[in-house]
Automatic annotation (TrEMBL):
Cellular compartment(s): Cytoplasm
Protein name per the record: Pantothenate synthetase
Chain positions recorded as ATP binding sites: 30-37, 147-150, 176, 184-187
Record keyword Protein transport present: no
Role noted for this protein: Catalyzes the condensation of pantoate with beta-alanine in an ATP-dependent reaction via a pantoyl-adenylate intermediate.
SUPFAM superfamilies for the chain: Nucleotidylyl transferase
Source organism phylogeny: Bacteria, Bacillati, Bacillota, Bacilli, Bacillales
Highest taxon of source: Bacteria
Pathway info: Cofactor biosynthesis; (R)-pantothenate biosynthesis; (R)-pantothenate from (R)-pantoate and beta-alanine: step 1/1
Keyword Ligase assigned: yes
Residues reported to bind (R)-pantoate: 61, 153
Catalytic residues in the record: 37
Length: 283
């Protein structure tokens, strides 16, 4: 496995591989790799000639009161896991290279960003599309891999690729879960023993909401209230949101049909957990 820190070296490597007609699968991450990341790598390894993964904790995604400095990092372990997974290139750019000065051109997400996590994290998805636009230009992948646990991010990336004509196929894979249903996340390490036992009820609550939405004569307001009560009665977490939207448009609709997302975010003492279910509703 080759480790690249330099932006120019990354570009040169990609140009050489493209000349040979090799396809590139790309898995962008912020590190502290877990099974969800590794399954994305497995899929990219299987579907492409070369697998490039990046590790970059992007400061533009963190608000003034968020956990940029505390975000978990373990470079040695990440390198070991990436090597074991057959990564060809691990791209480890430095912040001062990615953002050597303040940006002259600022990207702003106008749609799909003012709901769910974006509602309480102003500017977060602006940071996501900014770093991804840079990474897509540097890596020039044929396919880019993301997990549906961050379904709003997937929807925003879908818009980025479509709006700016990136010649990239977006591959969104199912959420990877623990045996008890909890979505795997780098932030799970912050849960206390009691909170870890309670956290799987978020996923169970979403499944309850899915079942209710598939019944006749039930309103989204009623389902959201019932899902919220399910979470608060089974956990000590504080609900940030429970919402039901069209997907990937992330719009509120009167009649639910087609692809729908039911999603939740819950604050525990030292971690904010998100989860969702995406499914079809037949009219």
């Amino acid at each position: 496995m080759r480790i690249i820190n330099s932006l120019s070296e990354m570009q040169h490597y990609v140009q050489e591989q493209k000349k040979q007609g090799l396809s590139i699968g790309f898995v962008p991450t912020m590190g502290y790799l877990h099974e969800g990341h590794l399954q994305l790598m497995d899929a990219a390894r299987e579907e492409n000639d070369l697998l490039v993964a990046s590790i970059f904790v992007n400061p533009l995604q963190f608000g003034p009161n968020e956990d940029f400095e505390q975000y978990p990092r373990d470079e040695e372990e990440d390198i070991r896991k990436a090597r074991e997974r057959g990564v060809d290139v691990l791209f480890f750019p430095h912040v001062h290279d990615m953002y050597p000065s303040s940006l002259s051109i600022v990207m702003k997400v106008e749609r799909r960003a003012d709901v769910l996590c974006g509602r309480s994290r102003e500017g977060h998805f602006d940071g996501v599309v900014t770093v991804l636009a840079k990474l897509f230009h540097l890596v020039q992948p044929n396919k880019a891999y993301f997990g549906n646990k961050d379904a709003q991010q997937v929807a925003v990336v879908d818009a980025l690729i479509e709006d700016y004509n990136f010649p990239i196929e977006l591959r969104a894979l199912n959420t990877v879960r623990e045996k008890d249903g909890l979505a795997k996340s780098s932030r799970n390490v912050y849960l206390s023993k009691e909170e870890r036992e309670e956290a799987p009820y978020i996923y169970e609550a979403l499944h309850y909401g899915k079942r209710r939405l598939q019944e006749e004569h039930v309103s989204s307001r009623q389902v959201k209230d019932e899902v919220s009560r399910f979470i608060t009665s089974h956990t000590r977490g504080k609900i940030d949101y429970v919402d039901i939207l069209s997907y990937p448009q992330l719009e509120r609709v009167e009649e639910y049909s087609g692809q729908i997302i039911i999603a939740a975010a819950v604050y525990f003492s030292k971690a904010r957990l998100i989860d969702n279910i995406i499914f079809e509703v037949r009219s």
